[in-house]
Design goal:
The complex is a heterodimer. By secondary structure, chain A is α+β, with helices and mostly antiparallel strands. In chain A, strands 8, 12, 23, 24, 25 and 27 form a six-stranded antiparallel beta sheet that branches. In chain A, helix 7 crosses helix 8, helix 7 packs across helix 11 and helix 9 runs antiparallel to helix 10. The longest helix of chain A is centred in the C-terminal third of the chain and has 33 residues. The N and C termini of chain A lie far apart (about 100 Å). The N and C termini of chain B lie far apart (about 100 Å). Chain B is mainly β. Chain B is about 15% helix and about 40% strand. The C terminus of chain B is likely disordered. In chain B, the strands form two sheets. In chain B, strands 1, 2, 3, 4, 5, 6, 7, 8, 9, 10, 13, 14, 15 and 16 form a 14-stranded antiparallel beta sheet that branches. Chain B has a two-stranded antiparallel sheet with strand order 11-12. Classes of the chains: A alpha+beta, B mainly beta.
Amino acid sequence: MPAVTVAFEKAGLGPPVAEVALETAAGTRRVPVADTADPQYLRPPEGRTTWLRVRVTKLASEPRSPVGTRVGISEIAVPGVRATRTLDVPAAGEEDPGTVLLTRQGSASACMRGSFAWTCRPSLEIHGEDGSGFDRTFVVRRDGERVVTGRAVLTDPTSARLLTTVPGVFPQVTASSTAVDHPAVLGRAAMDGDLATVWYAQPFDRRPTLTVRLGKKTRISRIMVLFPDSFLGRPPVQVSVTGGGRTTRSWVGPDGQVEFAPIRTDRLEIAFTAPASRAIEVAELTIPGVEPLGSLASFPLRLPCGYGPTFTVDGNKVHTEVVSGTLDDVVNGRPVGYRACEPVELSIGRARFAVAPSDAFRVESVVVRTPGRASGDAGSAKGSGGAGSAEGSEDAGNTVDAEDAVVTAVPAVTEAWGPGERRVRVSAARPSYLVVNENHNAGWQAHLGGTRLKPVRLDGWRQAWELPPGQGVVTLRYEPDALYRASLAAGGLLVLLVLAPAFVRVRPVPLPGAGPARLRRSWAWPLAPLAGLWAGGFAGVVILSAAVLLLGWLGTVAEARHARSGPLPRAAGALTAPWVPAVPLLLAGLSQAAGTAYGGTGQLAGALAGVVPQVLCLLAVAWLLATAPERSPAPPAPLRTSRARPEPLAVGR
Amino acid sequence: MRRPRISRVAVLAGVGAFLLTFAALLRFFVYEGVLALPLQHNRTYRLESPVSTFLDTGTLVSYDRVPLVSTTTLSGDAAAGDGNVAVWTEFTTLDTPFGERVAYHERRTAFDRRTGLAVDCCDGYVDDDPGARQTGLAFRLPFRAQPRVYPMYDTVLRRPVPLLFEREEEVRGLRTYRYAYRTGFIKIEDLPGKLPGRLLGLPGTRSVAVARYAQVSRTLWVEPESGLTVRAQEQHRQELRTSDGRAAGEPPGGPGDTGLGGRGHGGRGPCLHPVGSRRPRRAARLPLRGRPGVPAPGRAAARTPAPDLLHPRPRA
């Protein structure tokens, strides 16, 4: 393998990559990596190989955090290797199945027909495993010709507009852009008399415009524009109407009316200007005296050879023709039937069927069958293609049935579908996969009649289980859920255990001669290192302990009645005076304020706002601990209590 | 029995020290830290002009001496802001009393919560331009406004203009700083397509391409400590000009001459309202003419001569 080109991602990730190990069948070689996002040449080990692994072995610097640090490779190029992706359909049986059905799975269109209107948004689109294209490889057991049929959706807006603009029928509407590649959002949706169809302009279109050809010169002085939110009031949209050599600009009125100086024209350009926060979506555009476009259901769609989806079969172009469907199917994004213009010659080995992502059609299904069978059930060609496209999630997508030449693909029936437990009824004639289009998660377990199904990961991500032949109800359960709930319940119980004693009322029984206990100084002293550790770590322990010892000793000195004179007892008396802790607290506040006001990031400001107040506060804490009052030598007057309440006394005895 | 009394004194001394420190911190540290323009904001205020002139660019009809009302709503997007930057959206619509829209402006602006200066971030836009870069004061003056020049963003002109300090004035007993700016005619946009030449007083029937020019003057009375605008007055003149300099009047957003006056506009937080008006929103709806001691902005606008509307005026 010659030198490969690798470009590393640099933006927003951790430290850049400094060295990688290039591993091939010929060995391993460590190569340094330049600190750049541009492609760079890296030389793998000499020798032939069928694979290459790039392993990051060193970063330029230590990552700031071991969690969340990533590296990225934006592009790898190997000379002479072009990366494509084909779904390899597993072979079933040793004989030729006669018919092969290939279908698209797991994709969703950017446009959805809701309960009332079409909703289109690029974020709704799910590309699925196939993206925009279609690429399959399957095993061929017998040489010979095959008939290729199937169903496909026309997604290219330009082709769809050309197809749905019927010559001689006016008005003819052209939109400057559409938000998504789907025929439901064409400009004609704004003039088809149907509020449920909406023209969605591309958000980046700086001048979204509808061009309407009227067929004959008409005098127009107002139009009505309805937006999906028109019922909320006047939309802040300005409409520029160009026709007859002049342009007028008006704001849309409360009832969608747009009035302008009369013009006489056969071609109107209607441009919309709205704040950047608002996408241009036009539900209906009405021009007085102009009939709206009607339904296209009565127009059958037949396209000659070359106008259907174009396949590449083992490197050769295969053209198709559209043989079933209506124009209404096109504008509603429903599949239409196609057929290859001529039979396709396949030879023993592997056959690869591919449609380019740029094709105007999105292929939903392909049926490859031997001509004999095709002639036998030519009438049902469309039917079986339709069954293929409607196939459910039961099967991974591509089934080759060796015995009856009938494709069986049965969707699982959902009985219950919850966040933690799901039940589906399955029926499989042969070993199959039960597939859920979710990420593989080991927490999900499936049981069929008491036996646990073996979980598998399909396509590198998809959750699936091996399903034995037979039928029954499979229960899918997220098992950590039970443990999680159990621990929650246990936590709740423990909280109750804590709360319960708080509500148990115990009547206090006063004992004569026993006053409330006081904190003893010797109890407080062991707290000093703990408080120091909590407040200031090891340094805190040292400072606090030393200060407590010192102040405790000074306290003893101050209380010593035999030595009342001399500098030490006097100093000790002053340091244990009650106002003393206020001093370090005040100093701490001043230091903090000075540090903040000073504002710099220098060492002095940092110390003033950080270390100094901490130490001063520790000193104040030490003072409080060291001068904790001793237990009172005399018992407090207990008789008062007993005199005031004689009854408990009697009970006590 | 000596100890307990000592502890009580110690506690009192500690509390005293704490309160003293806290008082100092409150004034010099907390106050500076929390004095920021709010993230969440919701205010509507109106400016009224009893007599305006404007050209309807749709029907190409000129209207003279029409009352117009400008309604501005400010709405804060609290989720988009943070400790330093707030994001507000401003919606301004200029309508006739019959509910016909004459102009509409909308912008989303991020600004520094302490200086009030616009920050280029957070999906800001001005009208239909998502790439518009806004600079200068975004919506209002900062706290403790100084008697000096501030750059202020103008939505119509889409550029910052110097807001000059004029003088101190009393507005109903409240001491305010009066700031103002007045621009020359500035080209805003080329109108798409062409207009009939006779609209501009040109002979013949041919249509001509025109550009829109605008002149904006704005006066703000600002309570200096809070930075709040307690009264505002605006005058808008717009013209349509051909490339050779011929002009026709046009109103704000559309064409013509409009003077707008209004009062009020409060921010949340430490705000001061004009004396005798606790609720600036209601006050803003009061008619402005004839209030003693207050110049009536609408009338001032009416005095502005507008003889050149819809008549060709030779330009140098």
